[in-house]
């Protein structure tokens, strides 16, 4: 009789081995190589089980749509990202850098859901119950229907669910809860996989929405096995800069809605507040027109955001030129400098260049090329652009202004904010736009700064 063989497979990359090893030979991940039968839950000698009538498969037309209807969380920006609200039985994973405000946001979601009469169970595995209570008191999130428990054992968490019977469950965080049925420390691949699979099964059986907090690694990816992102229904990433109070939440995966929406929040002393109209956050409030500034309209998801781009050029202070950028792509700025010098005749060879955005927002889309180019030209010639001018478009290496995506939406937003002149692909070539709005100084006219020959 042939000897039965056992295969081992990596849960991260799928690499197989005839024997167990502690480290995957392909992706070099530790603790991810498991028995094939254990990984898939399939036993070769398994016999079919008779399915109960209430669990029998039904035609899809007989399944009611009310079972997957969204219910609002009370935070419109969060509902925008989720596609309209929280779906009963859905598992939502919220990840982000430490200190960005994940727990504060979910505590606000929990309090607003409890305010509507729903029972909410908040499991904190990182802080004590008194610490969470202090934060809830500071942010005004104290509600009678909000139940709080500090637990790190999965079995105890399940017992809390049976006792409270919540209508919304929040676990902060999934990497700090452990199960006695799985080996390894809390946060390891096997533990995270076991805890997440159990909570998802409870979510589906009870039609209970579950919000999970996920840690991130040094490179920004979600800690734990990649399988975690496949198991959950929605993956949201909470991002922001510690130097500014602005926060963004984006959906990287959403089975019930779009993945191109962005929610905007602001961290305040009283907690986190949603910003329904962030139009004025990225525009300077100075009434004096200065050179080197131009307004563009960026698109974050489906939302147009007016952003002011600022540029500054000074004579080079050393043999090596400086190109310092903040909030924009350095490679695109270098390309625009070359296009301006070659196509528009603006020399930057002896100048240090600084480019930044107002408000700390980061623009990586090509639709802001036109505004960056005009800001650089305005700074080089020390001539301010008209205060009611905005520019939207992509700049090619030939100096052509190409249309940006969602152009009509961008122009409509700029018009709404009072920008009378909106330059787009209809402006022609970049050299023509520079010559019209940033004209070359005449020889007789006094120059404010003779940094470079014009």
What does this entry look like structurally?
Residues about 40-45 and about 440-454 have low confidence and may be disordered. The chain has 3 domains: about 10-40; about 70-275, Rossmann fold (3-Layer(aba) Sandwich); about 295-435, 2-Layer Sandwich (Ribosomal Protein S5, domain 2), CATH 3.30.230. With about 450 residues, it is of the alpha/beta class. About 40% of the residues are buried. The strands form 5 sheets. The protein has a 9-stranded mixed beta sheet, sandwiched between helices. It is elongated. Helices cover about 25% and strands about 20% of the residues.
Quickly list its features.
DNA-binding, alpha/beta, hydrolase, damaged DNA binding, 26% helix, disordered C terminus, four-stranded mixed β-sheet, single chain, Rossmann fold, 454 residues, metal-binding, Ribosomal Protein S5, domain 2, elongated, 3 domains, ATP-dependent DNA damage sensor activity
Within the largest sheet, what's the order of strands?
6-5-7-8-4-9-10-11-12
Give the name of the CATH superfamily of the largest domain: P-loop containing nucleotide triphosphate hydrolases
Any idea what the radius of gyration is?
28 Å
Question: What is the helix content?
Answer: 25-40%
Summing up helix and strand content along with how strands pair, one would put the structural category as: alpha/beta
Please tally the β strands and state the result: 20
Architecture per CATH nomenclature, i.e. the level-2 architecture of the largest domain: 3-Layer(aba) Sandwich
**Largest sheet report:** 9 strands, mixed
Organism: Terrimesophilobacter mesophilus
InterPro entries: AAA+_ATPase (IPR003593), DNA_repair_RadA (IPR004504), P-loop_NTPase (IPR027417), RecA_ATP-bd (IPR020588), Ribosomal_Su5_D2-typ_SF (IPR020568), Ribsml_uS5_D2-typ_fold_subgr (IPR014721), Rubredoxin_2 (IPR041166)
Family: Belongs to the RecA family. RadA subfamily.
GO cellular component, one term: cytosol
């Amino acid at each position: 009789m042939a000897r039965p063989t056992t295969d081992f497979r990596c849960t991260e990359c799928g690499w197989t081995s005839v024997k167990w090893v502690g480290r995957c030979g392909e992706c070099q991940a530790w603790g991810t190589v498991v028995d094939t039968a254990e990984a898939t839950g399939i036993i070769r000698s398994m016999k079919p089980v008779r399915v109960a009538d209430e669990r029998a498969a039904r035609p899809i037309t007989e399944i009611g749509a009310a079972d997957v209807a969204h219910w609002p969380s009370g935070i419109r920006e969060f509902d925008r990202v989720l596609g309209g609200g929280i779906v009963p039985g859905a598992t939502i994973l919220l990840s982000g850098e430490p200190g960005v405000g994940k727990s504060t946001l979910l505590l606000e979601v929990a309090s607003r859901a409890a305010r509507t009469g729903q029972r909410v169970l908040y499991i904190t595995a990182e802080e004590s119950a008194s610490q969470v209570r202090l934060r809830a008191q500071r942010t005004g999130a104290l509600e009678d229907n909000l139940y709080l428990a500090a637990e790190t054992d999965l079995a105890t968490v399940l017992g809390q669910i049976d006792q409270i019977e919540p209508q919304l469950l929040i676990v902060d965080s999934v990497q700090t809860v452990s199960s006695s049925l799985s080996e390894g420390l809390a946060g390891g691949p096997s533990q995270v996989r076991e805890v997440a699979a159990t909570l998802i099964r409870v979510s589906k059986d009870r039609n209970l929405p579950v919000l999970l907090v996920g840690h991130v690694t040094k490179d920004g990816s979600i800690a734990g096995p990649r399988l975690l992102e496949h198991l959950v229904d929605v993956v949201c990433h909470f991002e922001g800069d510690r130097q500014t109070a602005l926060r963004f939440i984006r959906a990287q995966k959403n089975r019930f809605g779009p993945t191109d929406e962005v929610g905007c929040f602001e961290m305040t002393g009283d907690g986190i507040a949603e910003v329904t109209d962030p139009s004025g956050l990225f525009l300077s409030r100075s009434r004096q027109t200065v050179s080197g500034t131009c307004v563009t309209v960026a698109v974050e998801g489906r939302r147009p955001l007016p952003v002011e781009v600022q540029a500054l050029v000074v004579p080079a202070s050393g043999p090596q030129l400086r190109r310092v950028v903040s909030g924009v792509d350095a490679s695109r700025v270098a390309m625009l400098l070359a296009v301006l010098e070659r196509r528009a005749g603006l020399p930057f060879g002896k100048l240090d260049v600084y480019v930044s955005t107002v408000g700390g927002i980061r623009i990586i889309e090509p639709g802001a090329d036109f505004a960056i180019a005009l800001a650089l030209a305005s700074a080089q010639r020390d001539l301010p652009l008209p205060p009611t001018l905005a520019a939207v478009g992509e700049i090619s290496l030939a100096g052509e202004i190409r249309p940006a995506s969602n152009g009509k939406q961008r122009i409509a937003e700029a018009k709404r904010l009072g920008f009378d002149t909106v330059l787009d692909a209809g402006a022609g070539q970049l050299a023509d736009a520079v010559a019209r709005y940033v004209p070359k100084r005449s020889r007789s006219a006094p120059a404010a700064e003779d940094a470079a020959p014009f």
